[in-house]
Prior knowledge:
By secondary structure, this protein is of the alpha/beta class. It has eleven helices and 14 strands.
Amino acid sequence: MNKRANVLVTGAGGQIGSELVAALREVNNIVYPSDIRAPENPQEHFLQLDVLDKERMREIVIEYEIEEIFHLAAILSAKGEENPMLAWRVNLESVLTVLELAAEFKLFKVFIPSSIAVFGLGTPKDNTPQNTITAPDTVYGITKLAGERWCNYYYNKKGVDVRSLRYPGLVGYKTLPGGGTTDYAVDIYHKALKDGHYDCYISKDVAMPMMYMPDAIRATVELLQAPPDNLTVRSSYNLSAMSFTPEQIAASIKKHIPTFTIDYKPDFRDDIARTWPSSIDDSAARREWNWRHEYDLDKMTEDMLMNLEGV
Length: 311
Ligand code: NAD
Ligand code: AKB
């Protein structure tokens, strides 16, 4: 990331954006958070932007002399199944708009996240490799996979310095997640503190790769700071920290709230979860830009409960 770059963040009001904007400001950028939704509280330099409005995005790049774009706006997996055509348009048309703007205005860097959702039922489930079968079963996964291929294409053909992470399910206490399959791993902490009980929509033994938000934000900043020549992956890097099942996260919570109880009521999100990997091999990220996670399940649980109790 360049010092004092003018940075546009799309989808900045979401789970990642609301934490990433502060982190980007800390490394001395002038950050323009944008979202289709106006923020609840006034936010410095906020711009209202629907990422499907190509002309407005182009005007913003020119008017604010944007040098880097973090393109977070998306429709996540569960919401995507409810409105597949909207997910296709928001998740893919906007990626092409960002990549075209990056090529036209020779932006320094762009970050376009992907997801473990690019994998599907045919993918090896354990320690899923960086390069393997990607045959996603959700519209969200299809858009993310196509987006990854476009990133790689713009890097190769148009010299765009595009960087990407296949985030696992992210858990944080600052913002509620926006309609994904892994959201249960956030909801469970809120309900454990409020009700002492959680009805879980994922089966007790379905493991998914997960990460605590401070690790995810640091990974994003570190990837953007990595020297370009170190990076061999211009589609999207596998990224990993921990994997757990609902039963295991419940056991971790019980260490702090012994009376906590959980019931399992799987719905369509359980079907999605079963198509995703149980764990991820992120050795390329560890080797090429020195990725190291800090939080495991118990450390995350302790921090989540401590912070949510104070809310
Ligand atoms: P989120 O759902 O919390 O936030 C997405 C934001 O995009 C929302 O604030 C929403 O208002 C905005 N948005 C939706 N449609 C828009 C439009 N047309 N124009 C402008 N803004 C629009 O999502 P998130 O969890 O912050 O995810 C950010 C990115 O990271 C996404 O690309 C997502 O696929 C990816 N990702 C997230 C996770 C996770 O666990 N949170 C995991 C893997 C990948
Ligand atoms: C979702 O569940 O849709 C996201 C993701 C893993 O991409 N959290």
